[in-house]
Amino acid sequence: MKVKKVMFMLLVLGLSNLTYGQMSMGVDVFSRYVWRGTDYGNSASVQPSIEYEMGAVTIGAWGAWSVSGATGGNENDVYISTAVGPVGITVTDYFFPAYAGSDDLFTLDNHIIELAAAMDLGPIATTVAFNVSGDDDNSAYLELGYGPVTLGMGNGFYTIGDDPDFGVVNIGVTASRDIYSVSYILNPEQETSFLVFGFSL
To answer: Do residues 97 and 78 make contact, with C-beta atoms less than 8 angstroms apart?
Structure first.
């Protein structure tokens, strides 16, 4: 209930400043949709986004659409974020369309609500995220970033067998040039790795 109240307050704050906002959009294309160490869809992925920013509040939508049509790679999220001092706070509603006639967008049980906080500690970027609704395990994820290097740890659905203990699920390094990027991602928990190419428009 507290998360719903926070989302409502941020939305009201954003709408009250609607005329002063600024729209932006983007499209990323990746050879694979790998998120927090896990491959979704086993396919190339087109990932559009749109944002509306007004003052300290940003409201946006982000999607991932499998080029092969694999339903496991389809995602359509909405989020709202703001800053509390040096900490960025984001509430994200994750929804996974399946095109099977039973998506039921308006059923809360078909969504995962995540509360995340991000902050820079000197040269280290930190993100902590918790699933507060739609996930019986209330899975948590912690990520540390230092330049091009990322280390992520998670439990629940981030691990094999919904393990309640934290495991290392995402070790990555990214190189980029202009609009292009290549990431090497290792997931020790799944004993697998990925080499992902992408570009942004």
So the answer is: no
Burial of 2 (0-12, 13-18, 19+ CB in 10 A): exposed
For 6, phi then psi, to 5°, come to: -65, -45
Domain extent listing, the chain? 2-143
- Asked if residues 89 and 116 have their Cβ atoms less than 8 Å apart, the reply is yes
Average pLDDT, stretch 141-145? Answer: 98
pLDDT value at 1 more than 80:
no
Q: Is the pLDDT of residue 17 over 70?
A: no
Residues 6+ away with beta carbon under 8 Å from 79 = 59, 60, 61, 62, 90, 91, 92, 93
Angle, alpha carbons 171-131-100 (nearest 5°): 95
